[in-house]
Amino acid sequence: MNPIDRSVKKPATLDDVAAIAGVSAKTVSRVVNRNANVSAATRERIEAAIRETGYRVNQAARSLAASRSFLIGAFMPHLPSFYFAEIFRGAAKACRQYGYHLVLEEFDHGSDGVVDRYEQGLRGARCDALILTSPVCDDEKLLDALDRDGVPYVRIAPGKQPDRSMAVGADECRGVEQLVRHLWDGGRRRFAIVGGPAEHAAAMVRERAFCDALAALGGDPAGVALVRIELNESIAEAGRMATLDLLRGTSPLPDAIFAFNDEVAIGAMAAIRELGRSVPGDIAVAGFDDSYLAQLVWPPLTTIRQPIADLAFRAVGIIAEGQCGGRDGILLPADLIVRGTS
C-alpha cells in the first residue's frame, strides 16, 4: 500500500478566508458573489484574505446555491472584426469582475439561422442572460424566442425598437454630425457612403445621421452616392471592392467618402490609390470605431471613436446587478477623431 501524501495542500475554503479576515463565512460569500451590502473596508480585508489563501470559487456549488448558472451568452460572427474583438474584451473583463463566464455562439452574417443557433446552442447552456450586438440585437425572431423562454438580454447599439429592452449604445448621430461638419468646413461637397450590409441596423443609423447632418448644413442628401459592402472573409477587402464599384460608376468622383467602419475605410483607401487617386488630396476618407488600424495606416485615418469595450462592460454589469428588466438605455459619447485622411 502506498503511503498517503500529506504534503498536498487542501484547497482553501470560505471558512479559511473568513478566519483570516475576521468575519463570517456568509460575509465572505457576499463579497464573492459581488453583493453590494458589504462595507469597503470589510471588502478589502476579505479580498486580501482571498489573495493570501488562494481561494477559488467552486462554480458548481455557487450556481446550485444561487439557482443561477453565472453564464452570460453572446453571438460571435465567423468573420474577424475589431469591433467584436473589443466587445468580447470588454465583456470578458466585466465577467471577471462580477464572477461570471462568457459563452460564445458563432453565427453567419446575413444568415436566417440565428434563432436556430440559439435554440441548438445557447439555449441548452442555460445562460442567466445574453448580450446581443448588431445585427442580432435587431433580429425580431430571436428577441421573440428569448422573450418566450424568459431569457433576459441586454442589447448593444440596437437600431430598431430601442425601448424593447435594456440597451447600451454610443451617441453615433452626434459623432457623425461632427464628421459631416468637419468635411463641409474643409470644402468637401461631393459625398459618398460605403455602407454596411442592408440588414445591419447600425449601418442605417449612420447613413441617416450623415444625410440629416448634411441637409442641416444646406447640402443635398439625394446627391450622396451609396454603395454597400458584400461581406466575405475580409471586411477590408469588401470595402475595397465596394469602393472600386462606386468610383468606377460615379461621375464626377466624390471628394469625401464615409465608410461604415475603419476596416471598410482602409479598403476604400486601397481602392482610391488603385485608381491612381490620392488620399486626402483627391478624396477624403473617414471611418467609424477608432480601431488600432486607424493609426497604423498612412495617412492615419479620420474616424469616429466609440467606447466599444465599455459598451460591453456596461451590458454585463446590467445583467450582474439584476437590472435587465428595465427599459432604459445608457448612451455613451462618440467623438470625431481628425487625422490625416481628411
Keywords:
alpha/beta; Rossmann fold; six-stranded parallel beta sheet; 3 domains; 342 residues; 434 Repressor (Amino-terminal Domain); four-stranded parallel beta sheet
Describe what is shown at a glance.
This protein is of the alpha/beta class and 342 residues long.
Describe it for me?
The protein is α/β, with parallel strands linked by helices. The protein has 3 domains: 14-56, lambda repressor-like DNA-binding domains (434 Repressor (Amino-terminal Domain), Orthogonal Bundle), CATH 1.10.260.40; 66-170 and 308-334, Response regulator (Rossmann fold); 172-305, Response regulator (Rossmann fold), CATH 3.40.50. The chain contains 13 helices and 12 strands. The chain has helices at residues 14-21, 25-32, 40-53, 59-66, 82-98, 114-125, 140-149, 172-185, 201-216, 235-248, 262-274, 293-296, 308-320; strands at residues 71-77, 101-107, 129-132, 153-156, 167-170, 191-195, 225-228, 256-259, 284-286, 303-305, 329-332, 335-337. The strands form 3 sheets. A 6-stranded parallel beta sheet has the order 2-1-3-4-5-11, with helices on both faces. Helix 1 (14-21) packs across helix 3 and helix 10 crosses helix 11 (262-274). It is elongated, with a radius of gyration of 24 Å.
